[in-house]
């Protein structure tokens, strides 16, 4: 299913499927991106440039895989044992003038640490890049109806 092109006014708003890669993510996740008015700025991020459209976050809105766990297992301590549905796993994305969203912090189910990430559009597709310690992975997010 091809992703829907977004206008600048919509920002990242919408629902997308993050496909499992078998390494970082064991199950597909349906995410909803939203402008987060309650997002707290991490102390290490206070020196970062301001965002032109506020901070953006994403939460899990569905677990498409029937065998996906309902509770967060092997997650960062603040998420451990919490239900996955409506869990805000991505926070702090800041929009740059070129349309990229940088400086996000991501906590994936099954990973015991938070990772840095960024999101951008290319054509009608939305991409998520996850930065690990010494490498990164890039995922194409599929738009959901």
Indicate the CATH class: Mainly Beta
Percentage of β-strand residues: 35-45%
Number of helices: 0
Helix-strand sequence: EEEEEEEE
Assigned CATH architecture: Beta Barrel
What does the main sheet amount to? 8 strands, antiparallel, barrel
> Can you give the helix content as a percent range?
under 10%
What name does the CATH topology carry? Lipocalin
Side-by-side strand order of the widest sheet: 1-2-3-4-5-6-7-8
| Broad shape | globular
User: Which residue ranges are poorly predicted, with pLDDT under 50 across at least 5 consecutive positions?
Assistant: 1-9
How many whole angstroms does the radius of gyration measure? 14 Å
Number of domains: 1
**Number of distinct beta strands:** 8
Through-space gap between termini: 10 Å
Helix-and-strand structural type:
mainly beta
Mean pLDDT: 83
Description:
The chain is an all-beta fold and 145 residues long. The chain has a single domain (8-143), classed as Lipocalin. Helix content is 0%, strand content 39%. The protein is built from no helices and 8 strands. Strands 1-2-3-4-5-6-7-8 form an 8-stranded antiparallel β-barrel. The radius of gyration is 14 Å and the shape is globular. Residues 1-9 have low confidence and may be disordered.
Layout of SSEs?
Layout: E1 14-18, E2 29-35, E3 55-62, E4 88-95, E5 101-106, E6 115-122, E7 125-131, E8 136-143
